[in-house]
């Protein structure tokens, strides 16, 4: 069985995707920074689903990270047919009160690392008759988001890049899907530093489980969909802004996300 390379596999949506693929008897290469969490997950997948589960503890925001991944694949002579670019995070707050380093690190991980990994691993993916790339974007891609301004822009990038590449690669045997989750019960909000009751209440009301989001993403990937938005409310919030003046949307989102 070929391997699925999954970034951000130590927790949250990426971990759930690894479990779903292992249940389908797919071998996995798990990547994130937390080596202990990765090893524990790999042991569980090997024991419960009898798959080959490898780990690569790595900070993907490093400039040589994509090369390290492809060197690792080459050294271990791995056959890969799935790349899931899931690792990502957000930075919440008034832009000028956030740390510039953190914003740039986020842009590096959410965009540069995703593009570099895709570029480095495409030759391996093309060796198989059918391969898949699943990029994890966000419903933040569909409108500007005050107080998550740079994060939302990185996700617009992921969506646009994924759709363009889907069309470019349509005759290549590599299918590209973009998954755009809305609020999901993971450690995302904590990492983004979101300490707002208003946001927490909205997430409690509309949030989905990481497992449900992962299931929808993996299904969309194997169904060769271009874009998938999990959940009815998220579909509506992605669809309707195109009929409403942008200023109104931005003011409403700004009121919700204001620190
Ligand atoms: N949760 C939401 O509400 C939500 C909504 C829309 C979109 N998303 C997107 O979904 C994706 C997954 O997020 P999540 O919700 O599952 O959040 P999460 O629970 O915080 O998981 C993020 C994953 O990315 C990894 N990661 C973070 N920084 C990394 C780095 N520098 N190098 C390597 N790995 C790194 C983390 O592992 P380590 O910390 O071990 O490195 C973890 O495995 C992200 O792209 C996020 O933008 C989430």
Q: SSE order in H/E notation?
A: EHEHEHEHEHEEHHEHEHH
Distance between the termini: 48 Å
Derived structural class: alpha/beta
Number of helical regions: 10
Major sheet: arrangement of strands? 3-2-1-4-5-6-9
Q: Indicate the radius of gyration in whole angstroms.
A: 18 Å
Low-confidence stretches: none
Per CATH, the superfamily is NAD(P)-binding Rossmann-like Domain
Question: Tally of extended strands?
Answer: 9
Mean pLDDT: 96
Bound molecules: NADP nicotinamide-adenine-dinucleotide phosphate
Morphology: globular
Domain module tally: 1
Main sheet attributes: strand count, strand direction, barrel closure: 7 strands, parallel
Class, according to the CATH hierarchy? Alpha Beta
Report on this structure:
With 259 residues, the chain is α/β, with parallel strands linked by helices. It has a single domain, classed as NAD(P)-binding Rossmann-like Domain (Rossmann fold, 3-Layer(aba) Sandwich), CATH 3.40.50. Helices cover 51% and strands 15% of the residues. The chain is built from 10 helices and 9 strands. The strands form 2 sheets. A 7-stranded parallel sheet has the order 3-2-1-4-5-6-9, sandwiched between helices. α1 crosses α8. The N and C termini lie far apart (48 Å).
Would you summarize the structure shown here?
The chain has helices spanning 12-23, 35-49, 65-75, 100-125, 149-168, 188-192, 197-206, 210-222, 232-239, 246-257; strands spanning 3-7, 27-32, 53-57, 80-85, 131-136, 174-179, 184-185, 208-209, 227-228.
